[in-house]
Amino acid sequence: MAILPARADRRASSFRFGDFELRLDSGELLRAGTVVKLQPRPAKVLEILAGQAGKVVTREELRRTVWGEETYVDFDLALNFCILQIRRALGDSAARPRFVATIPRRGYRFLAPVEAVGREVGPQVAEQTAAPRQPPARWRANLAGTCALTLLLSTIGPGARLGRPLPPGIAAPEQVPPAQQRYLEGRYLQAVGEMDQAKVVFEEAAVLDPQSSPVFAAIGQVLLGTGRPAREVLTTAETAERRALELDSRNFVAYVDRGQRLFQFEYDWRGAEGAFRRAIQLEPRSAQGHFGLANVLAAQGRHDEAWAEVNRALALEPERRLAINPAWFCYIARRHDEAIEQALRTIDLALAATRGTASGRPDFQQAYWPLIVAELAKGDARAALTAARDEARAMGVCPPASLAGFWSRAQREAAKADSANRGLAVEAAIELGEYDHAFDLLSRQCEERSGFGIPFLRVNPIYDPLRGLPRFAELLRCAKLAYIAPAPVRSAGKAG
Known about the structure:
It is a single chain. The chain has helices at 40-51, 59-67, 75-90, 123-128, 137-141, 143-146, 148-153, 178-191, 195-208, 213-224, 230-247, 252-266, 269-282, 287-299, 303-316, 321-324, 326-332, 336-354, 363-377, 381-395, 403-416, 422-431, 435-448, 470-478; strands at 10-17, 20-23, 29-31, 34-36, 56-58, 100-103, 107-110, 115-120. The strands form two sheets. Strands 4-3-2-1-8 form a five-stranded antiparallel sheet, covered by helices on one side. The protein is built from 24 helices and eight strands. By secondary structure, it is α+β, with helices and mostly antiparallel strands. Helix content is 56%, strand content 7%.
């Protein structure tokens, strides 16, 4: 049953889908005749989504229609909370949606068939009601109390609290508190790289348990892991981080979030190092803390200290070798022979782990990249091309005929990918000799604080062809790196 087409003499008085009915005049949501609690603004969002069932409704469209220009608090947080309230009222799940599906970086789609139940009206009334309904002014004036701040500040009464052991005897999944279930689902999605879905599920957990420090720390963590510009994630990530620490001042994951935020967005090297060290002090077995500290140290050229932290992280979580990528730390330290050795070891482990499974795992890109550029740094173009072809086979694509072909394909793929892969576009432009294009990409990343490559401008050998050019000095000033002594540049053909 599809949504009924609009007619000049008929207007919908309610939408029906599944066991639910949404009354449009009152904003009431009923299930089998029983009222389901749903605040006015989430009800209005639900009306818009159900009224366009099957179509993608963008976040911007929802902002214009529901909030107008009177957005007094962070809109992203407000809309996220409204969607969570809708899912909770419908008994829906972001991971396995039956009603509302998230379309990453675009908006939402209502999945269920909708029946528009109408009532007869005269033609003149129909014309008057054709325009989109605007929410009452009191809703707009009351946004801070109805959506975003509720997520951070409200309580929902007694219930399960995350961050402490489950009571004895609770083992079956159906006995796990709902907030704990959502949190564990989010951790799984995060582990497999589904950051957008993980964020939605963690926010569901926050609605169910707004006193959970681990949940808010997890929200900040997945936001920082997207590599998106600061304007898209910084405010919400910092809010989540601070809320996590308000609830538990010893939450080491929140300090990892703080370190990553200061490193990635603020270019505050001292503050980032302090935050990561605080995380390690609170939890010495935090591989995330050691890995984050390794990045800060490596970006400043303190490679021996960074390598020690890399090894501590690997000892704690050897299964994350692909993500930690020790070969890359060797490469930016200009220890090219070690980078090649570490890369080959990682590749062997990755191939063994995926033997008999489908090809095309993106992990191989991280594994092969240091091998390719380290071989190039040593002046061995033939070995670099062999590595590039091996990577293509591991990824399930056609091997390149030349290194130029390899970098051209990398450039095209990076252009289609999200902001987390913008660094690959820069590296491809440099290797293809397109220095002006590389500078344009780097300048944009530095200004909007996106991607992960800018903090490593001073030490990453891939940028060597750009050093000494006027625009590179501007980049160093943008990233607050101009007054740190530069790393030594070794000529190609010499092993580090």
